[in-house]
Amino acid sequence: MGDQLEERIKFLSEVDVLEPLAPQELDRLAQRTPERSFQSGELVYIKGAAPGPLFLLLRGRIRLYAAAVGQELTLEVLQAGTIFGESSLTGHPHPENAQALEPARVGVLSLNAFWQLVRENPEVDARVMKLVVNRSCANRSRMMDIALKGVTARLASLILDLLQREGVITREGHYRILPRYTHEDLATMIGAKRVAVTRAFGALQELGGVHLQRRQIYVIDLSALKQVAAGV
């Protein structure tokens, strides 16, 4: 039990909005934040579900998505070290589905515990507000891309975004996006059909901007990719 608590404290210390907390505050928070595990593909909550606790993503990745008439649109893929389900703070039902993309560990923070936390640590509240605004701006930008850009430009923009959040530099000096994404995955992230994404990938590869190997995306020419994303 002691080892589990220490591990949870470590994971909580890596959550972006909890960085201002002192070690003793993290210890108290860990003791009142139970943990749940989700398998790949399992839903954490569904769209329209009543507001509940906040969720702290300790390990794994979570996909936030909307679905209608057999189609899905991925709104965001969250990495470990952040919160989600923040719509509960407004008292409104969840506006999207949350699904584990891989085995995930999630801390469950009740609203009472959260409000007590921000009363004692106003900086946590400020960080949550900033996170919510940034997510709203990113979603608005993504919707504008879907409305105004062609599939190839949207795919280039998405790859640049994934590169910033999930990319590493290879020994050859190229960039590689660590998680593997199928064309179907990418299609749900830019509001397109899978076949259109396949064609768009072909166009980007012909330009020398990207290379796909075993579902791993490599960025070969960053400048070319930026030009396509900007519609130049």
Give structural notes.
With 232 residues, the chain is α+β, with helices and mostly antiparallel strands. It has 2 domains: 2-146, Jelly Rolls (Sandwich), CATH 2.60.120; 149-229, Winged helix-like DNA-binding domain superfamily/Winged helix DNA-binding domain (Arc Repressor Mutant, subunit A), CATH 1.10.10.10. The protein has 8 helices and 12 strands. The chain has helices spanning 2-13, 23-31, 111-120, 122-148, 151-166, 183-190, 194-206, 222-229, and strands spanning 35-38, 43-45, 54-59, 62-68, 71-78, 82-84, 97-100, 104-109, 167-169, 175-177, 210-213, 216-219. The strands form 3 sheets. It has a 4-stranded antiparallel sheet. Strands 2-7-4-5 form a 4-stranded antiparallel sheet. A hairpin with a 2-residue loop joins β4 (62-68) and β5 (71-78). The longest helix is centred in the middle third of the chain and has 27 residues, at 122-148. It starts with a helix and ends with a helix.
